[in-house]
Design goal:
379 residues; alpha/beta; seven-stranded mixed beta sheet
Length: 379
């Protein structure tokens, strides 16, 4: 049954693609076996899990042994941050000021240094260099921001990391690792870990038309984070618990599909994004686009509408059949203004006058035009 709404909150959640659901269903029904069991049907389920892991590894340019399945992006981020920092508890971690809370919260348990961003949300590389010292063991910078859509210079950050690493000599020198939260990147950006130069990467199935609470953490060979969840030692000891085979298979199928079509879909949505921005310039000329227009996810339009209240606008948009967001869905219950918008220089008043529209596969040009006109009428 088609939705009665125009849905423009794909950064928060995407619908499960029918092909992904079809791939999952056998493991929710007849192929329910625990993959750690020793009898034949369970071994076959284990083989399917291994196939899913290889699918994910293919798109990362990684080994299957470097992919650990998790229950979504938040768990993967916690495993990356806490896993490294618990191994080096006296060291420090460096993060960008606009990270998702699932990075900021675990990083805050340790000595944590935040790197500033410019008014478009791009990381200040000189500030990054100043925040790293010989006691830094982890740098975590999100690939693309979930609120304003700004894409970070991951390769340039990796070069900074490589320079720092090459200068660490001697038996007492600490290692330094680079983690990126790529939850918002899976649909639109290259995920090849060697080209990016990352040691750990977080992925989330619920953002790429896979099931919620599915995802993975890439962990480069030789990097050994401590596990956050202890028990039977599944996922090579990184993540204990009976494997959710249906979720893993669904995640792998979703990633396979998203990466195969990413260039075509990015081109399509880039056109719609510009159509949206141009239309808002006509219907709401006082609106301000937040984030970088050049280095931006193709599906993201984040606007400040001066003098407006975003909660009131969201209610009125829903009444008009349009679903959008005021920011990160994970922080929707928090009444404080977005830390991301504060970091790019917006006042609390401006932050509370801001809306995020994120398009997806079902978005059409007609939908974009209807939303643009509706926003203009509501102001």
């Amino acid at each position: 049954m088609p939705s009665p709404f125009i849905y423009l909150d794909h950064a928060a959640a995407t619908p499960v693609d029918p092909a992904v659901l079809a791939a999952m269903l056998p493991f929710l029904k007849e192929d329910f076996y625990n993959p750690s069991a020793t009898y034949g049907p369970a071994r076959q389920v284990r083989a399917e899990l291994d196939t899913a892991r290889a699918q994910v590894a293919h798109w990362l340019g990684a080994k299957s042994s470097e992919v650990a399945f998790t229950a979504g992006g938040t768990e993967a981020n916690n495993l990356a941050v806490q896993g490294i920092m618990d191994r080096y508890p006296e060291a420090n971690v460096v993060v960008s000021a606009i990270e998702h809370e699932s990075v900021l919260a675990p990083a805050g348990k340790y000595e944590c240094r935040q790197v500033r961003v410019d008014n478009q949300g791009r990381l200040d590389l000189s500030d990054l260099k100043s925040k790293i010292d010989k006691n830094t063991v982890l740098v975590s910078v999100g690939y693309a921001n979930n609120e304003i859509g700004t894409v970070q210079p991951i390769r340039e950050i990796a070069r900074v990391m490589a320079e720092e690493r090459s200068g660490r000599k001697g038996s007492g020198a600490k290692p330094i690792y680079f983690h990126t939260d790529a939850c918002q990147a899976g649909n639109y950006l290259d995920l090849h870990v060697a080209r990016l130069g990352v040691d750990l990467m977080t992925l989330n199935g619920g953002k790429i038309y896979g099931p919620k609470q599915s995802g993975a953490l890439y962990v480069k060979a030789g990097v050994e984070p401590y596990p956050v969840i202890l028990g039977g030692g599944q996922e090579r000891g990184l993540r204990s618990g009976t494997e959710n085979v249906a979720a893993a298979v669904g995640f792998a199928a979703a990633l396979d599909q998203s990466q195969a079509m990413r260039r075509e879909e990015s081109d399509r949505l880039n056109g719609f994004r510009q159509r949206f921005i141009d239309g808002i310039g006509r219907t709401a000329p006082k609106a301000v686009l937040n984030g970088s227009q050049k280095y931006r996810l193709p599906n993201n339009v984040h606007l400040t509408l001066p003098g407006q209240d975003n909660e009131r606008l969201l209610i009125r948009l829903e009444e008009a059949g349009i679903l959008a967001a005021a920011g990160s869905a994970c922080s929707a219950s928090n009444e404080d203004p977005s830390h991301v918008l504060g970091a790019i220089g917006l006042s609390d008043e401006e932050a509370r006058a801001s809306l995020r529209f994120t398009m997806g596969r079902a978005t059409t040009a007609d939908m974009v035009d209807r939303v643009v006109e509706a926003v203009g009428r509501l102001l």
